[in-house]
Amino acid sequence: MANVNGKVVLITGAARGIGAGLAERLAARGAKVALVGLEAEEQQRVADRIGPSARAWEADVTDWDALEKATAGVVGHFGGIDIVIANAGIATTGFVRSIDRAAFEKVLEVDLLGVWRTFRVTLPHVIERKGYLLAISSLAAIAHVPGMANYCAAKAGVEAFCNSLRGEVAHLGVKVGVAHPTWIKTDLVDSADAHPVFGKLRGGMPGLLGKTYPLDVALDLIEVGVLKRARTIHVPRWVRALKLVRSFLPPIIEIGARFQVPAADRDALADIEARGSREAAVVGHGGKAATR
Fold first, then answer.
1. What pLDDT shows up at residue 45?
2. CATH code of the domain covering residue 232
3. Which of 7, 32, 53, 138 is labelled catalytic?
4. What are the mean pLDDT values of the chain's consecutive 10-residue runs (292 residues total)?
5. Catalytic one among 151, 175, 191, 277?
């Protein structure tokens, strides 16, 4: 495994959850961590907890100018960038026929285009140090469930993007990884579970597909993946097996949807009528910040 002592690690979406946890763990191994994201105050609290080896920059991963400015700040402060972890991501809940249109598209912009923009801006510095790029995809890239069409599409796109990019930069000494976490107990998942309509829909997911794992499960596996500069990280490891049978998943999921979606569809329309389309769609602090 690689030694990250003295290495500069840029992490997007580092205000909470996986991003904040990885920043703390890698800093404990001697890394210098640059926290980049929208929630400036929360991100600064993470940096303060870590100490002098961490610094925060406010930037929207969908904003080219903001990313360029933050990246220049990181390079100016730490001297370069060795590892980039594109972790920033948001989610919405809602069905395609009724979900708020702007909220739906914002997920695609943050979760897919945000990865492309983050990697494009930081790549020259990572090439210079023959470093490592890691994008946080999801189990949603493999199992596509109703009510998450935009999230599933974005995360599947992230996986495909990384697979293509890996072949483009291998000759430059850069390695590219993609992580596939399942449901991890974070603010995002807690907020989705609390949704009056889609919390019930997720609660009906069978077996491992619906199980929520502690944050440390994700941090343990992703931390080791970063140290190994792994091409794929599965959280937990059974996700790897699911990838092998992914072609069989859509019809299986559709069978389950026949029993759950009709009632949820009616409830979703009623929720939109009661709370408004934007409020009914957005979940999590990050999502609220991105769609503000």
1. 97
2. 3.40.50.720
3. 138
4. 93 96 98 96 97 97 98 98 97 93 96 98 98 97 93 97 97 98 88 81 77 95 98 96 86 84 88 88 76 73
5. 151
Residue 3 forms part of a structural domain: no
186 φ, ψ (degrees, to nearest 5): -130, 175
**98 given a catalytic annotation:** no
Assigned domain for 2 exists: no
Q: What is the structure's pLDDT at 17?
A: 95
Question: Does residue 167 lie in a domain region?
Answer: yes
pLDDT of residue 130: 98
- Could you give the CA distance from residue 38 to residue 14 in angstroms, rounded to a whole number? 9
Concerning whether 175 is annotated as a catalytic residue, the answer is no
Kindly state whether residue 96 falls inside one of the protein's structural domains.
Answer: yes
The one catalytic residue in 53, 137, 191, 277 is: 137
The 3-class secondary structure across 199-224, one letter per residue, is: HHHHHCCCHHHHCCECHHHHHHHHHH
Give the count of alpha carbons within 13 A of 131, CB side only: 22
Q: Into how many domains does the chain fold?
A: 1
The answer to whether 65 and 58 have CB atoms below 8 angstroms apart is: no
Task: Give me the catalytic one of 7, 32, 106, 155.
Answer: 155
User: Is 191 considered catalytic here?
Assistant: no
Task: Quote the CA–CA distance of 184 and 9 in Å, as a whole number.
Answer: 23
Domain limits for position 180: 8-290
Instruction: Convert the pLDDT of each residue in 45-102 to its tens digit.
Output: 999 999 999 999 999 999 999 999 999 999 999 999 999 999 999 999 899 999 999 9
